[in-house]
Amino acid sequence: MKWTIKKFEELTVNELYSVLQLRSKVFVVEQNCPYQDMDDVDQKAFHLFCTENNVCVAYARLIPQGITYAEASIGRVVVDPEYRGKDIGKVLMVKAIEQIHRLFNTSNVTISAQLYLLRFYNELGFKETGETYLEDNIPHIKMKL
Fold this sequence. Notes:
Helices cover 28% and strands 33% of the residues. By secondary structure, it is of the alpha+beta class.
């Protein structure tokens, strides 16, 4: 498996296609949630992804301060269903947090977490801030590191 981080304009067409394919596979098809994935944040973000045989199997979008939240943010966190249960999600988030520190010179990170992953994010040091809310008909909670 190969880990890569790139700015939007550095992504190859094939890398971008593979990332969007994974995001669609999980967020739209698996979660049965039609929503507008391309939201004009990708162009401002860094893209951290893991590939195997040139196919994206894990991904997170690293967003600078002041775009989604006042703090830096990690979003679109996803692992291919065939690769779950192998701690790839944890490795992905640890790498994402490290890159946030390196790229944006901050340790303050805010996320919008799907509620069913609350314990996963708590184990990484994130704490809930506020009440649960629906985002694209899925329960979420705002969390901060």
